[in-house]
Design goal:
With 248 residues, the protein is mainly alpha-helical. Helices cover 75% and strands 0% of the residues. The radius of gyration is 19 Å and the shape is globular.
Length: 248
């Protein structure tokens, strides 16, 4: 007996939600238990362990999970040639050369996210003035010369963070969600991405809503995973640098 299109869609939706849920659970344990324990025990800043522990146990495993899903699909094997991997990168994962129109969507997306996030964070500061936007494990005092070495920890973490999420969430899972749900797949991807960020707390999650919604929409609209990488990195990286040097 053949499965109905509805049952197939439901199965794909559940299967693609599962990685988000597992990653969210790991992230919660890492940020609420492991990082505080290591910071208290060592007397070091929590953000040091955010870079080290989250990079090792959250974002690196995302790249491994992406390889697993592709291997299970037989889209990639250990015997794949460089040309086959290149075709996989541009085809299945949709990391394609950006067109002029793609760049316009990137710029428009970043501007929209920046404006909306600023409006939301400003509202939070007005109505909840005692609330910290950044969770404790991401707290960072402006860097002084003797702490510039933290930038050396942050840079590889930043690359793992962006590429781990975008390869798995948008490169691997979003196309599968599109096959099941069509034009509304970005909405499922957005909701699942929000679940992943639950560990950040409700206030920060609220300020992240613009990127959580807009980024998956544009990636699906333009069918190009590089758009997600550029928007994600373009907002995340400069934001950290601004905080690190006390500019905000």
């Amino acid at each position: 007996m053949q499965s109905s299109p509805t049952s197939i869609s439901e199965r794909v939706a559940v299967e693609t939600l599962l990685p988000f849920g597992i990653a969210a659970a790991i992230l919660y344990v890492v940020t609420h238990y492991l990082i505080p324990f290591l910071s208290t025990t060592s007397g070091q800043e929590p953000i040091i362990f955010w870079f080290l522990v989250a990079g090792t146990f959250v974002f690196m495993p995302m790249l491994i999970a992406a390889c697993f899903f592709l291997y299970r699909e037989s889209a990639w094997t250990t015997n794949s040639t460089l040309s086959q991997i290149g075709a996989l990168w541009q085809g299945r994962l949709r990391f394609r050369k950006l067109t002029r129109t793609d760049w316009l969507w990137v710029m428009g997306g970043m501007m929209s996210i920046g404006v909306l996030s600023t409006v939301i964070s400003s509202g939070v500061r007005v109505f909840l003035p005692e609330t910290h936007l950044q969770p404790d494990f991401m707290a960072l005092k402006p860097l002084t010369a003797d702490r510039y070495w933290l930038l050396g920890l942050w840079l590889p973490f930043w690359v793992l963070n962006i590429m781990g999420e975008e390869i798995l969430w948008r490169g691997v899972l979003l196309p599968a969600q599109e096959q099941a749900l069509g034009k509304t797949a970005w909405l499922l991807n957005s909701c699942a991405w929000a679940i992943f960020h639950v560990a950040f707390g409700g206030v920060l999650l609220l300020t992240l809503l613009p990127i959580l919604v807009i980024l998956p929409y544009i990636v699906q609209k333009r069918q190009n995973s590089w758009i997600g990488v550029i928007i994600h990195a373009g907002l995340n990286g400069p934001g950290f640098v601004a905080v690190a040097f006390g500019l905000v």
